[in-house]
Amino acid sequence: MYKPKLTLIAVINGAGKSTFFDFATEKEKLCLGPRINPDELALKYNSEIVGGKEAVKLRKQYIDNKETFHQETTSEQPRNFFVPGVAFMPCK
């Protein structure tokens, strides 16, 4: 049975969130689904508010449609962060 996954990539600015996504999907062939990147959306719409609203809209759409996706965000508190048991699914 298919179970959609949400992957949240949350680290400080400049830590390599987009680089990780590119590496994981292109080199490792992991299925993270489409990316929601509020920074890219803010640039696209030339507005942080409009970009943020678009990010919320996309997130709701993916959840409602039970689709796998991932979102990038920043972490205001830099610290070591480890979640045991996290695994990424390879694409088929």
Structure description:
There is one protein chain. The radius of gyration is 14 Å and the shape is globular. The protein has 92 residues and is α/β, with parallel strands linked by helices. Helix content is 39%, strand content 13%. The protein has helices at 17-27, 38-45, 48-64; strands at 6-10, 35-36, 69-73. The longest helix has 17 residues, at 48-64. A 3-stranded parallel beta sheet has the order 1-3-2, with helices on both faces. The protein is built from 3 helices and 3 strands, in the order βαβααβ. Helix 2 (38-45) packs across helix 3 (48-64). The chain has one domain.
Main attributes of the structure:
92 residues, alpha/beta, 39% helix, globular, three-stranded parallel beta sheet, 3 helices
Tally of helical segments: 3
Q: Please, how many domains?
A: 1
What about the largest sheet? 3 strands, parallel
> Strand arrangement, largest sheet?
1-3-2
The shape is: globular
Task: Summarize the structure in short.
By secondary structure, this protein is α/β, with parallel strands linked by helices. The chain has helices at 17-27, 38-45, 48-64; strands at 6-10, 35-36, 69-73. The chain has one domain (6-73).
